[in-house]
Amino acid sequence: MNEEREIIGQRDDPAVPRYAGIATFALLPRPDEVEHADLAVLGMPLDSGTSFRPGARFGPAHIREHSRQLHPYHQVHETYPFRDQQVVDAGDVAVGPYDLAQAVERIHAEASRLVRQGTKVLALGGDHTVALPLLRAAAAAHGPLAVIHFDAHLDTWDVLHGASLWHGSPFRRAAEEGLLDLEHCQHVGIRSGVYGPDEFDDDRRAGFELIRSDEFQRRPMEEIAEQVRRRVGSGPVYVSIDIDVLDPSHAPGTGTPEVAGITTRELFAVLRGLAGLPIVGGDVVEVAPAYDHAGITGLAAAHTAWELLTLMGLSART
Ligand SMILES: [Mn+2]
Per its UniProt record, what PANTHER family does this chain match (predicted)? Predict the structure, then answer.
């Protein structure tokens, strides 16, 4: 880290409470307020790849609104995530709703621009299609990536309704394009309905091993985290978190909810067990606020993003 550079953290005006003022993510500065950003939170207001309930285009704003309560110190990692690295809120990518291929190109262009200037991207979705251009940008800089994918769904499916680009296919397309390290990818929390066992064969060919959500009932979470660490090895890691990995009781506001999921506590336990991995990028996606209640999903997503950016700060330090 550059010790001389002044790091600007969260807004800290005693006259303005956390619930007031414009909500950047965690009340962090914008890019034009800092010399250099080590990590940019970047909104993806897009849900044109959704197969079931639409609405994730409103996810980034919802997550920001619920990120006002994020604090500067992480009591488990004993670190200050906004001091270890300069984090900014880079706003939303300029994408429209009608042309998904064009939106994917724009996300790729914006993420690539940030990555080239040495800024890691933590994306707020938006539907899971956005992971493909984000992986393209990260892999261009770091080579094939070990992906840790928290999700109820495999997302290694092929064509749906004639489209190869949709929110259930990003990791299949990424594998085909050589963006993934096929020996080192890991799903966590899988449980959705499938049409048959061949879907799991396709999934293995896309480079993934899987941990199902029901394993959380009989296995210690430390052991699950250790299995993930062993699988991903020592190369660059990308962490993709579909909020529907959580049980609908913990995240009702999402497009394709699946029952019998994991809890926020279980998700955080596994994430915290990944400290020290070289995480080069990540996303928290599929937040659809129209189906949320009392901000449960917004809060879960904001805090999940905070856990992830804390990990990214720890990997920057090592
Ligand atoms: Mn997904």
Answer: ARGINASE/AGMATINASE, GUANIDINO ACID HYDROLASE, MITOCHONDRIAL
